[in-house]
User: Which sequence fits this backbone?
């Protein structure tokens, strides 16, 4: 068990480009969450999966954001047509049923 | 919707005791968690309360009053390494979703 792994650690992109992040959860965890965090704020809920099913997506989330967890293991978060306001730390977390969240180290996105 | 309020900053002296309060408004409340985050690090779980009362884990304790929609995190015997941000977070939707507050930045002075 190596914990929650996220790649890449850092991503710099130009406005208008698409980016994709990957999250590998703890292997026995069936729940996977994506959060976004900006400096001085708490993690903001984006979406979560139970196995391969995406059960909820934040109403604040633009249609430019999409997440998948095709086989109930790893997950990807894609942002299309990035904007400067998308610059943030994107955190992935996993948990077993009704257990605490284990967070990855995050992907820091900078949109120029 | 959900809202959580906690102080933005707290400063305390090494060896002292500090209490970080959290009040929340939410529907479908399931439990209250606390997470710690050091600068540049990931949030890590500290404590959880589903029922009223005090939960103790080493130097850290957490309290919940469901009727008052209030909880707190108590840190005893403060150490310099406790300087970090502390987030209260509510579990809603039967425990499926965790919503975080804006966090309290704790500064521990020598």
Assistant:
């Amino acid at each position: 068990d190596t914990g929650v792994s996220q790649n890449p650690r850092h991503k710099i992109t130009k406005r208008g480009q698409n980016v994709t992040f990957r999250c590998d959860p703890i292997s026995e965890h069936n729940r996977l969450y994506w959060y976004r965090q900006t400096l001085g704020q708490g993690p903001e809920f984006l979406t979560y999966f139970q196995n391969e099913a995406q059960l909820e997506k934040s109403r604040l989330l633009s249609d430019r954001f999409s997440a998948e967890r095709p086989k109930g293991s790893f997950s990807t978060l894609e942002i299309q047509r990035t904007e400067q306001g998308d610059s943030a730390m994107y955190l992935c977390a996993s948990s077993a049923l009704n257990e605490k969240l284990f967070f990855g180290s995050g992907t820091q996105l900078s949109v120029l | 919707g959900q809202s959580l309020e906690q102080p933005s900053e707290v400063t305390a002296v090494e060896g002292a005791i500090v209490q970080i309060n959290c009040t929340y408004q939410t529907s479908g409340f399931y439990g209250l968690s606390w997470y710690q985050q050091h600068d540049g690090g990931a949030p890590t779980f500290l404590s959880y309360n589903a029922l009223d009362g005090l939960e103790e884990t080493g130097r850290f304790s957490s309290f919940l009053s469901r009727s008052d929609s209030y909880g707190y995190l108590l840190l005893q015997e403060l150490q310099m390494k406790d300087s970090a941000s502390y987030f209260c977070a509510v579990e809603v939707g039967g425990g499926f979703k965790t919503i975080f507050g804006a966090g309290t930045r704790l500064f521990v002075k020598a």
Q: What stands out?
A: Chain A has a mean pLDDT of 94. The two ends of chain A are 36 Å apart (CA to CA). Residues 46 and 59 of chain A are 9 Å apart (CA to CA). Chain A touches chain B at residues 31, 33, 35, 40-45, 48, 50, 55-56, 91, 98, 100-106 (CB under 8 Å).
